[in-house]
Automatic annotation (TrEMBL):
One of its GO terms (biological process) is epidermal cell differentiation. Residues 8-35, 36-63, 64-87 form the C2H2-type domain. This is OVOL2 factor. InterPro entries: Ovo-like, Znf_C2H2_sf, Znf_C2H2_type. Signal peptide: none annotated. It comes from Macrostomum lignano. Its main location: nucleus.
Length: 137
């Protein structure tokens, strides 16, 4: 339901959001059905975004690197916050604003500028997994 001029409120918990799409995403957290499971610990999530963010706590993948000091982060919003607080530089992007997309390998943290390069890299992991280990002698 709409609250005030630009706020949308969850009917289940009362939390408020500035945009309908944010409320829609939030509503998934109330669902007991968790379709996406972490392969490391089995924790369930309602969408792939949350699963990917969680998976990085296990893999240590930190694809968002500060161009000023080199510190790396698991989420773009953490990099944006760091840049603002530490370097006094605003990096924030508006929703759907055009920006350079970073393709990240969730296995090893490799980053690629294009989808093609990313897929080519991911195939290396698939090939390695499909190759049987040599017997120990």
């Amino acid at each position: 339901s709409q609250v005030g001029e630009n706020a949308f409120q969850c009917r289940l918990c009362g939390k408020q959001f500035s945009l309908q799409r944010l409320l829609n995403r939030h509503l998934k957290c109330h669902s007991t059905l968790k379709r996406f499971l972490c392969r490391y610990c089995g924790k369930g999530f309602n969408d792939t975004f949350d699963l990917k963010r969680h998976t990085r706590t296990h893999t240590g993948v930190r694809p968002y690197k500060c161009s000023d000091c080199g510190k790396a982060f698991t989420q773009r919003c953490s990099l944006e916050s760091h840049s603002k607080k530490v370097h006094r530089r605003v990096l924030a992007y508006a929703h759907k604003e055009r920006r350079e997309k970073l393709h990240v390998c969730e296995e090893c943290g490799h980053t690629a500028a294009t989808a093609e390069e990313h897929l080519s890299h991911c195939r290396l992991h698939q090939q390695a997994a499909a190759t049987p280990a040599l017997p120990y002698r």
